[in-house]
Structure formats: C-alpha cells, structure tokens
Amino acid sequence: MDTPFIDTPFIQILLLLFLSYAVAPTVLIRFGRIGAISRAPRGGGRVALTFDDGPDPFYTPQILGILRDHQVKACFFVVGSKARANPELVRQIVEAGHEIGNHGFWHKPVWLLGPVSTARDIIETNRTIEEFTGQKVRYCRPAWGLFNLFSIAYYQLKGLKVVLWTFMSWDWTKGTSPESITRKVLNRVRDGAILILHDSDKTAGAARGGPAHVIEALPAILRGLQQKGLRLVPLEEFTMKKHRLTVKSCFRRVWGVYDWTIRKLSGIRDLREGKSSFFRIALRRYRGKDWPMPDGSVLKAGETYMELHINNERLLDTIGDNVKVERTALIALREVRSELPVIARLLELDNRYRHIKALLAITLLHRGTEHLGFTAYDMPKGPLRTLISWYERWMLGLYHPGGFKKLGAYRDKLVPKYIVMTRQDLMQRYLPAGLGVGELDVGRGT
C-alpha cells in the first residue's frame, strides 16, 4: 500500500533546521563567546592586530611596509582563492614574521554551505596556505564571522583555533574615513583587545577604496596605542586553552539557546509538566488520505494525533558512554516502554487528549519498536524525508558518544520511518487496571 503523507509543518521543520544548523551556533559563539576567542585576559597591556580578506596585490604590500616600519607583528586571515592567485604575497607575509590564518576559500557565508562544501572551503584554504608557506595553519576566522554546526565540528577536528574580534572599526563600509577609523579604534581599544581591519576591497559588501583609508589611518593607530601604553603582540601570546571548544558541550549550549523557542512555536511540550521526561509531545491534525491502522481503525483527514519527540538532553544523559548504536536503541526502547503507560493515563484522564486517535513519531531508532506495539511505515521519498534524515543523523552524531565516525558503519540502516500506535492498542497494552484519577501525574486539562 502507499504510505499516506503526514502533514508535519514543513515551515517549522525548515525553521528548526536553519536555526540549529546556522543561526544558533553563530549566536552562541559571537555573542555567548563560547568556543572562540574575541579578546585576551586583561593584565598584560597587550593588543593583537588582525587583517581580513586579503592578500591584495595593491594594498597588502603597503600595510606590510607600515608594520615593518613600526616593528609590529599582525595576523593576516587570508581568503584561499586570493592566496592562490598571489602566492608571493603569502610568502612575504610569513617571511616578515606575521601570522597567517584561514578566512575561507571564496569568502562565502557558511550559512549557505552544506557540510561537504563547508569542509571543502576549509580544506582548500589550509592546503593553499601550507603549500606556499610550509607552515601548518593554526588560526581560522570564518567569513562574516558566521558559523554552522559542521564548521564548528570541523574546526575542532582539524585543531584550528577560532579567532574573532573585540569590536568593529567599520573600515570596510561606505562613508568611512581615516579619521573615523582612527577615532573608533583608539576610543574603544582596551587591554586584551583583538583589532580587525581589512586589506582588500574585493569581497561582497566592502566599499571600494576602504583599505586606502586603513593605510592612511594605520600609523596614527599604532602611535596612539603606544601612547596608551598598549603593546601589539602576535596572537600566539594570547592564551586560548580556556576557550577550547568541544562539539558536545557547544551543541548542548546551542540547544539551550533555541530549544525553548522552537518548542513554543511548534506547540511541543514536556510529557510530564515540570518534570524531566524522555518524550515531548504535540497535538497535530492529520491532513493526509485515509490511513488504515493495524487494528482495523482508520485515521482520517482532520482527526487528531499525538506527535512524539525525543528529549535529546534526556537521551544524552541516559546513554552515557555507550558507543554502540544497537545499545543506544535498546536504551531508548527501555525509556519508551517506561513512559507509554504515562501517555496512556494522560489520554484516559486529561480532557485535552480525549480525541487523540493515534501516536506518531518520526525516528531513526525504529528497530524493535514493533515489540512495544508500534507499526513502522516507510516515509515517501522527497524533500521532507531528506531533510528529516539529514537532521536526525546530524543530531544523533552530535549527541552520540561515538560521534559521526561510529555512526558511519550504520549509514544504510539509519533511515527515518513513521512509527504509529493507535489509541486502542495503547490503552489495551499500557493502561493499568483500576486507574484512579489521583494517579495522574502529568497535569490535567479541562
């Protein structure tokens, strides 16, 4: 038989994916200052100077000359394609004693890149720098200061230290001037600051001629820093141990940023109000064609079903250090079995759920659910299945102790499916005999 289409809110899924993949990681790192360095601890009278978007054959040599005259070292975050086109400039930067970092190959925002393109962007830039300098790349600064979940994981995997900035001088915008750049820098600079300037105007959004203003302002900035008693030092003098990023800790913080918002927007709530539970639930109206259920009933358009969601924080705490996917699935099944009686009591006693016809979930961990009373259905091929498959694999890889490498062996088995149980089957299997109203511990409606 053809599998009916479940009208899971497509916009909500896209929003969840975009928030989890792009927006939340960027907010967490840029504003939460987690997993990257944007300033150094105070107390050393130190400031670091960095340049983005080069190398540029016109502007970069002039900046190198100014830095040489003032005996100052900086870090140049280079765009891979520009470095590839100007190998001698890359060598000049390193030979002058400056540091060099990865700023992406095409200066594209990673919000628009998938995992493969993100990895390629980082790898190609590293390869270019290492080929021309013979040095291993240690620092990275993503274009526009934007992140996605895969870029965070890949920086960690490659041992790259993410370096941002303390404040903007807006030297790349229209209407700027040497005086405005100098004023903004000297008025805001403090001990431990990381300064960002630009030595190219060939990237999207950059005002033409902006680096010329930087070149004119730079000597005054360097003199002003000296007058303030601040010394310019290489990035390597800024300790970064306390800012070391781990994927799991970062993702758990990311989840806290947007999880509450997404649940509120999509009507998902905890099964046990005020208590930790393995399931989160939402009420949905079925909008597909008539769907014959295993017990002979039919789920029809307009009827209500309960959508089940795994509480990922609870799952992570439950699986602990178990790295086998089979073991993870068994642990998850045990938790599901323990909470199905709670759902049965909820449907029996809470008036908000008296019209529920079935329970439904979409999950990769569907093996063995038939022993609990669920029936598994294949999802129709299409964008929804592709998005859910990618999202759930990504989530499982980040939360699972074995990570993505361990999950690679299960790629063919990790296919999302609908699992369904009718209200009648749920009650027959899990509603305790002689249930009293006082036994309900999940909150009552009217």
UniProtKB/TrEMBL annotation:
SUPFAM superfamilies for this protein: Glycoside hydrolase/deacetylase
Keyword Nucleotide-binding belongs to the record: no
GO terms for biological process, alphabetical: carbohydrate metabolic process
Enzyme class: hydrolase
Keywords linked to the UniProt accession: Hydrolase, Membrane, Transmembrane, Transmembrane helix
Domain annotation NodB homology: ranges: 45-233
Transmembrane intervals: 12-32
MF annotations from Gene Ontology: hydrolase activity, acting on carbon-nitrogen (but not peptide) bonds
PROSITE patterns: NODB
EC id: 3.5.1.104
PANTHER family for this protein: 4-DEOXY-4-FORMAMIDO-L-ARABINOSE-PHOSPHOUNDECAPRENOL DEFORMYLASE ARND-RELATED, GLYCOSYL TRANSFERASE-RELATED
Protein name per the record: Peptidoglycan-N-acetylglucosamine deacetylase
